[in-house]
Amino acid sequence: MGSGFFALLDDIAAIMDDVAVMSKVAAKKTAGILGDDLAVNAEKASGFASSRELPVLWAISKGSLLNKIIILPVAFLLSAFFPIAIIIILVLGGLFLAYEGAEKIYEFIVPHKHEESEGITDEVLTEEQILLIEKDKVKSAIVTDFILSVEIVIIALGTVMEQPLLQKIIVTSIIAVVATIGVYGIVALIVRMDEAGFKLIKSSKREKSLSRFIGNLLVKALPFVIKSLTVIGTIALLLVAGGIFVHYIPFFHHLSEEIKIPSIFKEFTVGLVLGFIVLLFVNLFKKIFQKKTA
Questions:
Q1: What percent of the chain has pLDDT over 90?
Q2: Which residue has the higher pLDDT, 52 or 284?
Q3: Which of 59, 128, 235, 275 stands the most exposed, by the fewest C-beta atoms within 10 Å?
Q4: Is it the case that residue 206 has pLDDT exceeding 60?
Q5: Which residues, in sequence order, are CB contacts of 141 under 8 Å at separation 6+?
Q6: CA distance 241 to 261
């Protein structure tokens, strides 16, 4: 019995070693999408009142965790019984991300009537209106997170497809949890930069001290960080979408191999072009629907 127990311990140790190695490989392969996930979610989690930043971010984080709880078992089942469905889901998700990225660029270039009403900053909103706006933004962030989470889970799962089921589950689940904690932990640090800066300034008793200098730097840097994240988030949406199309649609895959330019430019271009095509169809559908309801 003793030898059987130690043999079991050896098996567990061997499995954990394999899991550690495969987790490192999966983490490397998902590093790019995690960077995009960070940029996109940081952009979506910004723009709230200071007192509401952490509650809103916590709500998005819980939604992200729920997304992964839903995605993981579905991904395991589909990979085992209906693998083509994973590619279909990825492509549909890529179209949504491309549409979001193209829409942001379109709204920046082309003025819209709704932007004028959104630009009114003197309007006093009730607490109920503020919470309603927050709820809509949280929903939008969670939907985008769902699509990015699918991509993260599928890429992580792809690195261990030939491994036993137990190791598939452990490795993919580790990457999913690390993605949630890591991404939203960093996002929390970004959106609270100004609060940390103010605290450093208040704690400093001297006019020219290191803490005051760092505090002022954090406060002044936050608007630039948020603006840059808006740009980076938009680019990230198109890159993630383009990466999905290039890797999972044979036409774009072969086309990208024939064109000798860096893959990042190929993926961005494909994501941008398809994003504007989807945007065109969506806008046409909206106009037709408005005419019918008018």
A1: 5
A2: 284
A3: 128
A4: yes
A5: 41, 44, 45, 60, 63
A6: 18
CA dist 145 and 67 (Å) reads 8
Q: How far apart, in whole angstroms, are the C-alpha atoms of residue 237 and residue 243?
A: 10
Q: Dihedral, CA atoms, 209, 212, 214, 216, nearest 10 degrees?
A: -140
Residue pointed to by tokens 């193209």 = 102
Q: Computed from CA positions of residues 248, 250, 256, 257, in that sequence, does the dihedral angle turn out positive or negative? A: positive
Q: Quick one: which of 110, 98, 122, 87 has its CA closest to 36?
A: 98
| DSSP code, position 51 | G
For residue 235, give both structure tokens.
């680019």
Query: What b/e string do you get for 22-46 counting C-beta neighbours within 10 Å, with b at 16 or more?
Result: bbeebbeebeebbebbbbbbbbbbb
Tokens matching residue 81: 């019984």
